[in-house]
Design a protein that fits this description.
The complex is a heterodimer of chains A (about 725) and B (about 375). In chain A, about 65% of the residues lie in helices and about 0% in strands. In chain B, about 25% of the residues lie in helices and about 35% in strands. Chain B folds into two domains: about 240 residues, Rossmann fold (3-Layer(aba) Sandwich), CATH 3.40.50; about 120 residues, Beta Barrel (OB fold (Dihydrolipoamide Acetyltransferase, E2P)). Chain B has about 375 residues and is of the alpha+beta class. Classes of the chains: A mainly alpha (about 725), B alpha+beta (about 375). The interface between A and B is large, with 34 and 45 residues. Chain A: It is a multi-pass membrane protein. Chain A: InterPro entries: MetI-like, MetI-like_sf.
Chain lengths: ~725, ~375
C-alpha cells in the first residue's frame, strides 16, 4: 500500500514537472527546445510551468496533490492515517483536475455562473496532453492505494488499482460518450434541453411509417431494421442449425472443411460479401449481363435494397450461427437421446421430441445473435442498401450527410441502442437460465444417435449448396481485384494491385499504402492494450470481491451490445472538445478499438479463468503471495494461451471493423476498411478488392502464426496439467 | 525431524464467530481453543460450516462478528498473505506450470528468505515427506499420493504458525488413505505443528487427532478427545454422528429416588442412579450394549425386551441385526465367531439391555 502510494505520487509529480500538460498539435518535436524555455511555454509547458509562469492557478492541484501524497508516503505515520491521506490527496486532486478541465474550455469559463463566482476568465485551454493525462491517472492509483489501506479489496493495493483504473476507463470511454450522445437526443436544434425534441423526432414519420404496406415506396427506418434483423436472425439460425447437425451428427467427412467456414467472417471485413453480390447481381454483374445477353431479360437494380442486404448478411453471419450451434449440439447429452430410444422411440420421434426441444435455448440464442449482428452491420447496407435505409446507415447520413443533424443522429442511435440492448438482455436471460445442455452433467457416456434420414437429407440439401455459394461468392469477390474492368473486360491483370501497392524509387507511391500502414499500426497498438485490459479485468471479475463488482462487469459487457455506429457517433460527440480532445488523432481510433473489443477479450479471459481452480490462487495467498504476486506468478503463466488468442483476436477485429471508425477517421488516419468502402461507393471495385485481398492475406498469416504458436504451447502444456481430481472427495 | 522446519507452536483461539451469507447462517457463535502443538479436527457432515471455519482462519472468508487469534495475535484485519497460516487444499492446488521444487520454493521466495537458505529448506521439506529426488518433476508426473505430499511439503516449508488441512485424504484411495493418515500424524508430531484437520469421516478424525470439534448446522456441538465423544456424547447429534447409535423415543418416569425410561408403547428400562434427566430426552445405547439371548437363558440383572428380527447384515467381526421392538427399531451387534450360525430374519428374539450403559440425550 505504501509502495503503491509512493510510486504513484512520484510518477504524478514527475509528470507535472516535466511532461507537456496540453495536447501539442505537432508533437513534442515542435517544442522550442532552446534551453529550458519550453518548461514555461503556454503550449508546451508542464503543469509546473503553467502554474508558475502562465498564472494558470487552477492547475495547482496537479502539483500539490502528488507532493502531499509523497509526504504521506514518506512521513513515519501509522497505516490508517497514511491511507486516509492517500485517499484524500488522490481523490481531491483527481476531482479538482477533472473539474477544472470541464470548467475552463476553449472560450474561458464553460458556464456563466462560474464567471460570476470567480470573475472573468481571459485564458482558455485546449485538450490535455501527456501530462494532463498521466497526472490524473497516477492520482487514481494513489486513490486506490488509499482505498486498499482503508481495508477495501482485502487491503491489496494491486487489486484496488486494477479495479479503480478499469472503472475509470469504462466511465470515460464507454459510459460518458453514450450518456452525452443520448443527452443530445433531448436537445433541440439550438442545443437547449427540451424533452419535446426527443418525442418530436421519435414521432418522425421516416422512422415508423408503414406506408410500404399500402404501396408507398418505403417504410420507416425502424421497421426496415427490425424486419431485416428478424429475417437475418431466422435465416442464419436455420442455416447454422443445418450445418451444425451435419458436422456433429451427420457422419460426414466434410466436418473439418465446414468448420473452416467459421473462420471466414473473422478474417474478412463484413462488407466483402456485399461487394461479391454486386459483382454477380449488380448492373454489370455476371448474372445480370448473362441474363440480358442470353434471354434479353433486364434484371435491373433489384439487388440494391432489402434482397441484397438480406442475402449479404445471411452469407456473412451464417458462420457465426453455425459456430454457436456447433457448441450447442455437441453439448447435448447423448444419454438423454439413448434413453428415448430405449423407450422405443424411432430416430425421428427422438429427434422431434427430445433433440429439438433440447436445442431450443441454443436456437433462440443464435437467433438473437443474428438479429444483433444484422442491426449493427454497417458495411453491407452502405454498399447494397440503395433506397432501403436501416438505422446504422441513417445515423451515418445524419452525421455526414447534407443535412447534418446531431439531434436526429442521437435519436436514431437511441432507438438502435434500445433495440440492441433489448436483444442483449433477452439473450442474457436465456443463457443465464440453466441451459438444458448441462443437465446431463458429468460422467456422460454414450454415442450421439445419427440424424434421421429425412432430416439428414434436408440438411444436406440446404447446407452443401449454401457452403458452395459462400465459397464461390468469396472467390468471385476476390477475383474481381485481378481483372481489368468487371463486367466489360475480364482480362487478368495486376493493375489494381499495383495501383494500390506500388513501390517506385524506394517510395510507397501506391494509393493504399497509407491506409494499410495506418490500420496495421493502430491495430498493433490497440491489440496488446485490449488483451491486457481483457485479461486483467477477467481476473478482477472472477477473483476479487468488492462492492459494485457486478455493476462494473455488467457495464463492461454492455459495450458488446452497443452497435458500432452508435459508438462511433458517441465518440465523435464526446471527444471533440477539451479536456479530452481526441477527435482526429490516432488515439481516438485506438480507444475505439480497445473498448469495442474489450468485452470479447473479457469473455474469453473469464472462460479461461473458469478453468483455473481458485484454490491455485488461494494456495499462493496462504504462502505469502499478495494479489499482484498471485496474478503474476500463478494466473498469468496459466493464462498464456488465452492471452495469445486474445491478442490475435483483438488485432484481427481491429483490422476488419468499419462501423464505428468510419466516423472517427480523418485524411491522416484513414483506415483500410474505410478506404475500401469509399472505393466501392465510387464504383472502383478493382482497387477496393485488391486492398481487401491484401488485408485478408495479412490476417490469415497472422491467424496461422498464432495457431502455430498457441497450438505448440498447448501441446507443451498438456503434460503439465494436473490430472482431473476424483469427485469422490466432496461427497459427505 | 528436520530442525530447518521446526518452530515454536502457536495456539488458536476462535472467539464468538458468526458468519452468514445473506440469510444463510453458516457459523453460529463458534468458540474454540486449540492448544499449541495439538492435532485438532473439525468433524461434521457436509454443509456444517467446518470448511468455512477453516477458510475463515486462512483469511478467505470474513466473519460478521468475533475474532480469530493465533499465538495471541488477532488475525481478523490481516489478508491471507500476511497471516502465516499454512493450508493444504483438498485439490492440492499445485501449480502445473512449476516443477515440484519451484512449487515448494514459492512461499520461501514470497517471504524473501535468502537464496542460500531456500535450497536447503526445500530439500528438507521434500525429504520430510519422502519425495527427495523428485524436485525436477512436474506435478502432473506424480501420483495422487505424491501430489498430496508436495502440497504438504510446500506448506510446511514456510514454517507456518498453524497448518490447516482441508479434507486432505478425500482424493486418495482407501488403502493409501490409511497409510497417509499415519504419516500425517508422525509428521505433525515430529514438527510439533499446531494442525487443524477438516473431515467428514469420523474414522479419520478418531485415528489421527488429539481432540475433535463436532459441528452441525454452523455450531460446535461438542469438543473432546475421540473416546470422550464416543463414550459421553453431549447430545443426540454427536451420538449419531460418531459410531452407530440406537435412539429410542419414550418418557421418563420417576418413582422416588429411582428413575426409569418407558419406551413408547412398551418396555420400561430402569435408569442408572445419578443420570441427568432432561425433558424430551431420548434413550441412547450402542449396538454392542445389547445382547441377543438364546431362548430360555437367564437374563440376570439385565432387562429383557422381546422383538422381531427384520433384517441382518454380516459385518465380518460381528453380525448386525435389525430388530423391531414395541415402538422402535434397534440395531444389535452379535459377535461372529465362525460357522454359519445366525438367527433367521422374521424370527423372534429376546434382547438383554445392560441398563448401566444407556444414556438419556436431547437433540
Amino acid at each position: 500500500m505504501r509502495a503503491a502510494g509512493l510510486w504513484s505520487s512520484l510518477v504524478a509529480l514527475a509528470a507535472a514537472l516535466l511532461l507537456p500538460w496540453y495536447l501539442t498539435q505537432d508533437g513534442i518535436a515542435a517544442a522550442p527546445l532552446a534551453g529550458l524555455a519550453w518548461l514555461a511555454d503556454p503550449d508546451f509547458g508542464p503543469a509546473a510551468g503553467q502554474v508558475l509562469a502562465q498564472g494558470r492557478w487552477w492547475l495547482l492541484p496537479a502539483l500539490l496533490a502528488p507532493a502531499a501524497g509523497l509526504l504521506a508516503a514518506l512521513l513515519p505515520i501509522p497505516r490508517p492515517a497514511r491511507a486516509a491521506l492517500f485517499l484524500l490527496t488522490g481523490g481531491l486532486g483527481l476531482g479538482l483536475l477533472i473539474a477544472q478541465g470541464y470548467a475552463i474550455g476553449v472560450q474561458g469559463w464553460s458556464t456563466p455562473w462560474l464567471e460570476g463566482l470567480f470573475g472573468p476568465m481571459e485564458d482558455r485551454q485546449f485538450g490535455v496532453g501527456w501530462g494532463g493525462a498521466l497526472v490524473p491517472a497516477a492520482l487514481a492509483v494513489l486513490l486506490a492505494a488509499g482505498l486498499a489501506g482503508r481495508g477495501a479489496f482485502r487491503g491489496d493495493a494491486f487489486t484496488a488499482t486494477v479495479a479503480v483504473c478499469i472503472a475509470l476507463a469504462i466511465a470515460v470511454f464507454t459510459a460518458m460518450p453514450l450518456v452525452l450522445l443520448l443527452g443530445d437526443a433531448f436537445r433541440d436544434a439550438g442545443g437547449a434541453l427540451a424533452a419535446g425534441a426527443l418525442f418530436g423526432r421519435l414521432a418522425d414519420d421516416r422512422l415508423w411509417s408503414l406506408g410500404c404496406l399500402a404501396g408507398a415506396p418505403r417504410c420507416g427506418v425502424v421497421w426496415n431494421t427490425a424486419l431485416l434483423g428478424v429475417l437475418v436472425g431466422a435465416g442464419t439460425t436455420a442455416l447454422g442449425l443445418a450445418f451444425a447437425l451435419l458436422v456433429v451428427r451427420g457422419r460426414l467427412r466434410l466436418g473439418r472443411p465446414l468448420r473452416w467456414l467459421t473462420v471466414l467472417p473473422i478474417v474478412t471485413p463484413p462488407f466483402i460479401l456485399g461487394l461479391g453480390l454486386i459483382l454477380i447481381f449488380g448492373r454489370s454483374g455476371i448474372v445480370s449481363l448473362a441474363a440480358s445477353s442470353l434471354f434479353g431479360v433486364e434484371l435491373g437494380r433489384w439487388i440494391y435494397g432489402l434482397p441484397g442486404v438480406l442475402l449479404a448478411q445471411l452469407f456473412a453471419f451464417t458462420p457465426i450461427a453455425f459456430l454457436v450451434l456447433i457448441g450447442v449440439v455437441e453439448g447435448l447429452s447423448p444419454t438423454l437421446e439413448e434413453a428415448s430410444s430405449t423407450l422405443r422411440a424411432t430416430p425421428r420421434d427422438t429427434f422431434r421430441t427430445v433433440t429439438l426441444p433440447l436445442l431450443r435455448p441454443g436456437l433462440a440464442n443464435a437467433f438473437l445473435l443474428g438479429f444483433v449482428e444484422s442491426m449493427a452491420d454497417f458495411g453491407n447496407p452502405i454498399v447494397l442498401g440503395g433506397q432501403f435505409g436501416v438505422l446504422a446507415t441513417e445515423i451515418f447520413f445524419a452525421v455526414v450527410g447534407a443535412q447534418a443533424d446531431a439531434g436526429r443522429a442521437a435519436t436514431l442511435s437511441l432507438v438502435l441502442l434500445a433495440l440492441a440492448l433489448g436483444a442483449f438482455f433477452l439473450q442474457r436471460r436465456l443463457t443465464a437460465r440453466k441451459s438444458y445442455v448441462s443437465i446431463g452433467g458429468k460422467g456422460d457416456a454414450g454415442l450421439a444417435p445419427p440424424l434421421p434420414a429425412g432430416v439428414r437429407r434436408l440438411c444436406l440439401a440446404v447446407a452443401l449448396p449454401w457452403a458452395g455459394l459462400t465459397v464461390a461468392l468469396y472467390l468471385l469477390a476476390l477475383s474481381g481485384g485481378f481483372v481489368e474492368i468487371w463486367g466489360r473486360d475480364y482480362t487478368p491483370t495486376l493493375r489494381h494491385m499495383i495501383k494500390a501497392f506500388e513501390i517506385s524509387g524506394g517510395q510507397l507511391t501506391g494509393l493504399a499504402w497509407n491506409s494499410v500502414i495506418t490500420t496495421v499500426t493502430l491495430a498493433a497498438i490497440s491489440a496488446p492494450i485490449t488483451a491486457a485490459l481483457g485479461i486483467v479485468s477477467a481476473w478482477l471479475f472472477s477473483r476479487a470481491r468488492f462492492a459494485g463488482r457486478g455493476a462494473l462487469e455488467f457495464a463492461t459487457m454492455l459495450t458488446f451490445a452497443v452497435p458500432g455506429t452508435v459508438i462511433g457517433v458517441a465518440y465523435l460527440r464526446a471527444f471533440n472538445l477539451p479536456p479530452l480532445e481526441l477527435a482526429g488523432t490516432g488515439a481516438i481510433i485506438v480507444a475505439c478499438f480497445v473498448f469495442r473489443n474489450l468485452p470479447v477479450g473479457l469473455r474469453s479471459g473469464m472462460a479461461a479463468m473458469a478453468q483455473i481452480d481458485p484454490s491455485l490462487d488461494e494456495a499462493s495467498h496462504t504462502l505469502g503471495g499478495g494479489g499482484a504476486d498471485a496474478f503474476r506468478r500463478v494466473v498469468l503463466p496459466l493464462l498464456r494461451p488465452a492471452i495469445m488468442a486474445g491478442l490475435v483476436y483483438a488485432f484481427v477485429r481491429a483490422m476488419t471493423t468499419i462501423s464505428a471508425v468510419i466516423f472517427l477517421v480523418t485524411a491522416d488516419t484513414e483506415l483500410a476498411t474505410v478506404f475500401i468502402v469509399n472505393r466501392v461507393i465510387n464504383g472502383d471495385y478493382g482497387l477496393a478488392i485488391a486492398v481487401a485481398v491484401v488485408l485478408i492475406a495479412l490476417m490469415v498469416v497472422m491467424l496461422g502464426l498464432a495457431q502455430l504458436l498457441v497450438g505448440r504451447r498447448r501441446i507443451g502444456r498438456r503434460a503439465a496439467v494436473a490430472p482431473p481430481i476424483q469427485p469422490g472427495g466432496t461427497v459427505a | 525431524m528436520s530442525d530447518l522446519l521446526a518452530r515454536e507452536p502457536a495456539g488458536v483461539r476462535v472467539e464468538g464467530v458468526d458468519l452468514s451469507y445473506g440469510a444463510t447462517r453458516v457459523l453460529r457463535d463458534v468458540n474454540l481453543e486449540i492448544r499449541p502443538g495439538e492435532f485438532f479436527a473439525f468433524l461434521g457432515p457436509s454443509g456444517c460450516g467446518k470448511t468455512t471455519l477453516l477458510r475463515l482462519i486462512a483469511g478467505f472468508a470474513t466473519a460478521q462478528r468475533g475474532r480469530i487469534l493465533v499465538g495471541g495475535q488477532d488475525l481478523s484485519p490481516l489478508p491471507p498473505w500476511k497471516r502465516d497460516v499454512g493450508m493444504v487444499f483438498q485439490s492440492y492446488a499445485l501449480w502445473p506450470h512449476m516443477t515440484v521444487r519451484k512449487n515448494v520454493a514459492f512461499g520461501l521466495e514470497e517471504r524473501r528468505v535468502p537464496r542460500a537458505e531456500i535450497g536447503p529448506r526445500v530439500e528438507a521439506a521434500l525429504r520430510l515427506v519422502g519425495l527427495d529426488g523428485l524436485g525436477d518433476r512436474r506435478p502432473s508426473q506424480l501420483s495422487g499420493g505424491q501430489q498430496q505430499r508436495v502440497a504438504l511439503a510446500r506448506t510446511v516449508a514456510v514454517r507456518p504458525k498453524v497448518l490447516l488441512l482441508d479434507e486432505p485424504l478425500s482424493n486418495l484411495d482407501a488403502r493409501l488413505r490409511v497409510q497417509v493418515r499415519r504419516e500425517l500424524r508422525d509428521l505433525q508430531q515430529g514438527l510439533r505443528l499446531t494442525t487443524i484437520f477438516v473431515t467428514h469421516d469420523q474414522e479419520e478424525a478418531n485415528t489421527v487427532c488429539d481432540r475433535i470439534a463436532v459441528m452441525s448446522e454452523g455450531a460446535v456441538q461438542q469438543v473432546g478427545t475421540p473416546m470422550e465423544l464416543y463414550d459421553h456424547p453431549a447430545n443426540l447429534f454427536v451420538a449419531g454422528f460418531l459410531g452407530t447409535a440406537n435412539i429410542v423415543p419414550g418418557i421418563v418416569l420417576r418413582d422416588g429416588g429411582a428413575a426409569a425410561f418407558e419406551i413408547t408403547g412398551g418396555t420400561r428400562i430402569p435408569l442408572p442412579a445419578g443420570l441427568e434427566v432432561s425433558e424430551g430426552a431420548r434413550l441412547m445405547f450402542r449396538p454392542q450394549d445389547v445382547t441377543l439371548l438364546p431362548a430360555g437363558a437367564e437374563p440376570g440383572n439385565r432387562r429383557v425386551i422381546a422383538g422381531e428380527i427384520t433384517h441382518r447384515e454380516f459385518l465380518g467381526a460381528s453380525i448386525r441385526y435389525g430388530i423391531r421392538v414395541a415402538g422402535a427399531e434397534v440395531l444389535v451387534d452379535a459377535p461372529h465367531t465362525g460357522g454359519e450360525h445366525h438367527l433367521p430374519v422374521g424370527g423372534l428374539a429376546a434382547l438383554a439391555l445392560d441398563s448401566s450403559r444407556v444414556k438419556l440425550l436431547s437433540a
